[in-house]
Amino acid sequence: xxxxxxxxxxxxxxxxxxxxxxxxxxxxxxxxxxxxxxxxxxxxxxxxxxxxxxxxxxxxxxxxxxxxx
Length: 69
Prior knowledge:
The chain has two helices and no strands. It is mainly alpha-helical. It has one domain (5-68).
């Protein structure tokens, strides 16, 4: 669990950020702002996912090796 946690937190944040923006905009009835919220949160989420991928590729294996051995 500790080996997967560093990138999982970023992935979950990137997943739920656009979802939260959609939920807030739909509850307010701000349908005209929904497209803008989608672009902004996606523009934030994509780099976060790239960083999470790099962490998963380089940091998680080393962390797992350190925890196992």
